[in-house]
Design goal:
Oligomer: single chain
Radius of gyration: 16 Å
Strand order of the largest sheet: 4-3-2-5-6-7
Shape: globular
Number of helices: 4
CATH topology: Rossmann fold
CATH architecture: 3-Layer(aba) Sandwich
Helix content: 10-25%
Largest sheet: 6 strands, mixed
CATH class: Alpha Beta
Low-confidence stretches: none
Number of domains: 1
Bound molecules: inosinic acid, magnesium ion
Structural class: alpha/beta
């Protein structure tokens, strides 16, 4: 066991479960957007693993880009104050956008990101999240697709961090 793993209390979602759900989602996306101009937008940093695995399960041409948003310091409570620190192209006309995010928690981050992208006139916009934590929602936003719905616990791994650590775990664990 690595030292990072020794502090994780339990595995909530295994590597196998994640793999299976992503393969299924990639297949659905490939069918739904066949013949369309597709752009997958990941939100850094948390979504980098999810996006890397998801786009490799997409079998149609697709572009990939990343935005960065910050709302957490080293605490486990969202500040509600969301900053976009890296943005993508300003004209999205003709593009079918999939926002791929690691987790929908309070919804503050995704509300702001979604609003920003809708202003740029994409052909369509869909929100796909790996994890949905509905108990903590304060903003009015729902995912079009959530691969897993989880209870109100602070989770790490598969891109998600606590104080910048644990992103490299292959599974989702509870601290
Ligand atoms: P929001 O509260 O929905 O705005 O979520 C903001 C960000 O907080 C997410 O994009 C994640 O990066 C992070 N976050 C929320 N819940 C968790 C968690 O349980 N573990 C790790 N990061 C989280
Ligand atoms: Mg995030």
């Amino acid at each position: 066991m690595t030292s990072a793993e020794t502090e994780v209390k339990s595995v909530l979602i295994s590597e196998e479960e994640i793999k299976e759900a992503i393969a299924k989602t990639g297949k659905e996306i490939s069918e739904k957007y066949k013949g369309k101009k597709l752009l997958v937008v990941g939100i850094l940093k948390g979504s980098f693993v999810f996006v890397a695995d998801l786009v490799r399960e997409i079998t149609i041409p697709c572009e990939v880009d990343f935005m960065a948003a910050k709302s957490y310091g080293s605490s486990t409570v969202s500040s509600g104050d969301v900053n976009i620190t890296r943005d993508i192209a300003s004209d999205l006309s003709g593009y079918n956008i999939i926002i791929a995010e690691d987790i929908l928690d309070t919804g503050n981050t995704l509300s702001k990101v979604k609003r920003k992208l809708l202003e740029r006139n994409p052909e369509s916009l869909e929100l796909i999240v790996l994890l949905d934590k509905p108990d903590r929602r304060t903003a009015e936003i729902e995912a079009d697709k959530a691969l897993f719905t989880i209870p109100d616990a602070f989770v790490v791994g598969y891109g998600l961090d606590y104080d910048e650590k644990y992103r490299n775990l292959k599974y989702i664990g509870v601290l």
